[in-house]
Design brief:
The chain is of the alpha/beta class. The protein has a single domain, classed as Nitrilase/N-carbamoyl-D-aminoacid amidohydrolase, CATH 3.60.110.10. 33% of the residues lie in helices and 19% in strands. It is built from nine helices and 16 strands. A hairpin with a 5-residue loop joins β12 and β13 (267-270). The longest helix has 30 residues, at 29-58.
Length: 357
């Protein structure tokens, strides 16, 4: 792989901070679906505007835009699993993805985001899916969130999901002309393994669709963004919502904190709270990252990882149980949200029993 300046991969990327118009208050599935599509179209129009502005301002082409978590729908709050699936979940290759794909094509960029989605292999449930769409309109990556406090994940149907997609489908990396792209979702920034498993498969840019509370101090989750970038020697792009209206939660609870962090943990750009913003945009230099990862020295944290040591230790530890939704090979979705709370309580009890807490 040539790392000469003449072959430099240099472009602008953006963590686009947008309003979320939640659909929770809609009283019919039909009106909810119409609102979801309106949200998609509104945000896509903003992407087109940002494309033109960044070229004018930075003098570089905007080639990667990342959208926040919940941007198209909000999150379920009181709705049953079955109802939210009808109200808000995208079909696998449904009309919402068609609009997003056309935007990526028209803008000539990679478009990343997060949506509730129904996989035809698992029609009984929905996943929270991070996606990346290439400039030709193809969806080149789908990463399904693996940890959630109150939503189904591939881990809940682990054996079946692994049979269909394999480990590469659990931690996918898209190798593109702008670098190797991967995604994690929301709270997953809190666990270093989620980012590291993508990086050890080649990821150079971690895209983190997010919707977190905006605070005036350095929160743990916000600090984790810089830590994940630093320890993995990777760019970290984290768009956040500017607000969430249409929900019973106060609108500006989740606001601000959108940012781009470089591979040394330095904040390159960040948006203020309280409103929509394209301010979190920065010029990425992929060749510089690749040279940095090839240095021999103490600072090369990736090259010094004793991964086999971790694997052996983890294998012997009781962990959050998988396959909770599989009963004799069939999917059985818990009707009550209390299932998730009870499951966590059992894990805590086991940790206490073993003397870990």
């Amino acid at each position: 792989m040539s790392l000469n300046d003449s072959d430099a991969i240099c472009y602008s990327a953006m963590a686009l901070q947008v309003n979320c118009h939640a659909v929770n208050h809609h009283t019919s599935v039909e009106s909810s679906r119409a609102a979801v599509m309106e949200n998609v179209k509104r945000i896509c129009a903003q992407v087109m505007g940002c494309k033109n502005f960044v070229k004018f301002f930075q003098g570089t082409d905007l080639k990667l835009v990342a959208l926040p978590e919940f941007a198209f729908t909000g999150f379920p709050f009181g709705q049953s699993h079955a109802l939210w699936q009808k109200m808000a979940a995208f079909e696998h290759n449904g009309p919402e993805f068609d609009v997003l794909s056309k935007t990526a094509q028209d803008a000539g960029l990679y478009l990343a985001g997060n949506a509730y989605e129904v996989d035809p292999n698992f029609p009984e449930i929905y996943f929270q899916t991070n996606f990346i769409i290439a400039p030709n309109g193809d969806i080149i990556l789908r990463y399904r969130r693996l940890t959630s406090a109150f939503e189904p994940t591939p881990h809940d149907v682990w054996d079946k999901y692994l049979d269909i997609y394999g480990m590469d489908g659990m931690f996918p990396v898209a190798k593109t002309d702008i670098g190797n792209l991967a995604c994690i979702a929301s709270e997953e920034v809190n666990w270093p393994e989620m980012s590291r498993l993508h990086v050890l498969r080649g990821a150079e840019i971690l895209i983190h669709p997010n919707s977190e509370p905006g605070v005036s101090y350095e929160s743990g989750r916000d600090l984790a963004k810089r830590t994940r970038a630093y320890e993995n020697m990777a760019y970290f792009i984290s768009p956040n919502t500017s607000n969430i209206d249409g929900s019973v939660v106060p609108a500006y609870t989740c606001t601000g904190l959108s940012k781009i962090v470089d591979y040394t943990g330095r904040i390159m750009a960040a948006a203020a709270d309280g409103g929509e913003s394209q301010t979190a945009n920065a010029v990425l230099e992929i060749n510089a990252l690749r040279r940095y990862r090839r240095r021999i020295g103490m600072a090369n944290l990736l090259a010094r990882q004793p991964v086999d040591l971790y694997a052996a230790a983890y294998a012997a530890i009781y962990r959050h149980p998988g396959n909770c939704f599989l009963k004799e090979g069939e999917i059985d979705v818990p009707e009550e949200k209390s299932f998730y709370r009870d499951r966590q309580a059992k894990v805590i009890a086991e940790m206490e029993k073993k003397g870990w807490i």
